[in-house]
Amino acid sequence: MTAHPIGAAGFLHRFDGLRARLPGARLPWIQALREQAADAFRVQGFPTRRVEAWKYTDLRQVADAGFDEALSAVDSAPALPPAHGGARVVFVDGRSRPDLSTVDGLPYAVESLAAALEAQEGRLGSLARPAEQPMAALNTMLFEDGLVVTVPAGVAGGVLDLVSLGSASERPEAFHPRHLIRLEAGASLTLIETATGPEDARYLHNPVFEIEVGFGATLTHARIQQEAPRAFQLATVYARVEKGGTYDNFTLNAGAKLVRNEIHTLLAGPAATCHMNGAQLLRDGQHADTTTVLDHAAPDCASRQTYKTVLMGKSRGVFQGRIHVHQVAQRTDGYQMNQALLLSPEAEIDSKPQLEIYADDVKCSHGATVGEIDADQLFYLRARGIPEARARAMLVEAFLTEAVEGVQDETARAALGAAVTGWWEAVA
Amino acid sequence: MLRIEGLTAEVEGKQILKGIDLEVPAGEIHAIMGPNGSGKSTLSYVLSGREGYEITGGSVTFDGRDLLAMEPEERAATGLFLAFQYPVELPGVGNALFLRTALNAVRRARGEPELDAMQFLKVARERLKALQIQEDMLKRGVNVGFSGGEKKRNEVLQMALLQPRMAILDETDSGLDIDALKIVSDGVNAQRGPGFSALVITHYQRLLDYIVPDRVHVLMGGRIVQSGGPELAKQLEETGYASVQAAA
């Protein structure tokens, strides 16, 4: 056996070996998608920091890890995180596990991509742009499975849990699920995604979401990232929102060694709304990157983005937010705020807002704050008898609470709040 | 109760307190009056333990214990309370949680059992009623969006809950209309008794019509330049601080 190829070459090598066995190998349109993605990935490789979009996030440690494809045992019964509603879909190492999932009697369709692949022609790949995003290219080249949800017009879908578990194995493994979420006119859904893995696991979770929010539909998408401490998550979300629709995304980054949370939202129809909010909670040695790309491509749309990062030890946070207001997008109302609380002199936060405005009747604002715990606030609490450590904890919690309070959906808000509290209790 | 001897303190290398001697016996309320820049607020912050003030000499004892050696939270637990001139806003911290955490921290330090949420609510409601404060104030963020009067009432509410043995009221009258002034004064007067002392720091005599002090001290240039009974406050109101300066 020769040395295990690493980097982009390792993944391309794997694709060569798996090509004929990957799902959809006999479907010409899938084959074409994968081949194009492989070409794109071959050209781009793992992005280096010389690529502007990746200036603050170095993927070398991911590229050099030498991943295997996942070989999870199907009969194992892993511990599952708490459920937030009745319906739950579980993926282990990127593969659907119907035996662990509960989707009976739902008023909408929940399928595994591997099983329903043939019917996804024209839908899969309609939003993702592998030619411009190498991790999306990697995902397209190697995806095996994913979640396909279609909520019919006018149906209130309630809460659906999407659980992703990575497992521990001898060699680090990589999985690239592709999730397709579609809400037809007037439909609604609260999707609560929890990604986690056992303490000693080392893996790459590289999901891509393609999300379609139809006319007047509302999707709440809460992403709770609690990956194993040595794991990597590189997630790319593509969302398209039609007239009067709402996409409410909140991403909580609490786990993983390195995470990139990249969201591309296209406000395609008039009076559409999008919230891209989040919190990043970083301990010593962690790196979290949130990159948002927002296209206001229709008039009278509103967007709100608030990201809050708490940094401890030698951790690093990144926020890059681009808002592109197209010429047709008159009366756009855009707001973007990035706030960081540095609890250690060794922590670092990089913030890069970017506004490109081509319409003339627009209200768009952005801002960034970086600070330590406020001395006056701390003294006020201590002067009331509250010990310093507890006072600090209260102020950090308050900072994070404000982020989560913006989430409209009650179940999602409660789930995120519990995850924040759990994180803080574990580190404090 | 509180004994200050030869206290000197600096802020950023500048000497503000230049030798304060003051004793407040148990059960007495003393007023400290003085013009702007005389060191009134510095004195209150030094006594409550705020960072940024360097004690360069003298001593402060509270019930015979060295107050200056204690952390701010220890001072609070031992029964010292500072009512802030500018109460701090704490966005994201609910007032009820804040009050309960403070009360339980102080109770724990005193060896008393902590109150659960229900027990706390019962106690808090009684105090709110006595101070004519809407219960809604418990649900809001601490001082967030409060009017000047509401902030000061919230300070008095904290005092009523924590039951200190000594309160320092730093310009508590500033920003209050006459109705709020009465409510705040009633709150302080309700605490009056052999186990409660107060140091009322004020620029104006007005507050002392409602909280009648046992003694009045005039602070100027970092020193107590004159002391007397309540009539001294009235006299200052008429003649101004300049006359004291001339006499001193």
UniProtKB/TrEMBL annotation, chain A:
NCBIfam families: sufD. This is Fe-S cluster assembly protein SufD. Residues 171-399 form the SUF system FeS cluster assembly SufBD core domain. InterPro entries: Fe-S_cluster_assembly_SufBD, SUF_FeS_clus_asmbl_SufBD_core, SUF_FeS_clus_asmbl_SufBD_sf, SUF_FeS_clus_asmbl_SufD, SufBD_N. PANTHER family: PROTEIN ABCI7, CHLOROPLASTIC (PTHR43575:SF1). Belongs to the iron-sulfur cluster assembly SufBD family. It comes from Dankookia rubra. Residues 17-74 form the SUF system FeS cluster assembly SufBD N-terminal domain.
TrEMBL record, chain B:
InterPro entries: AAA+_ATPase, ABC_transporter-like_ATP-bd, ABC_transporter-like_CS, FeS-cluster_ATPase_SufC, P-loop_NTPase. GO terms for molecular function: ATP binding; ATP hydrolysis activity. The keyword Secreted does not apply. Keywords: ATP-binding, Nucleotide-binding. Residues 2-246 form the ABC transporter domain. NCBIfam families: sufC. Belongs to the ABC transporter superfamily. Ycf16 family. PANTHER family: ABC TRANSPORTER I FAMILY MEMBER 6, CHLOROPLASTIC. This is Fe-S cluster assembly ATPase SufC. The gene is sufC.
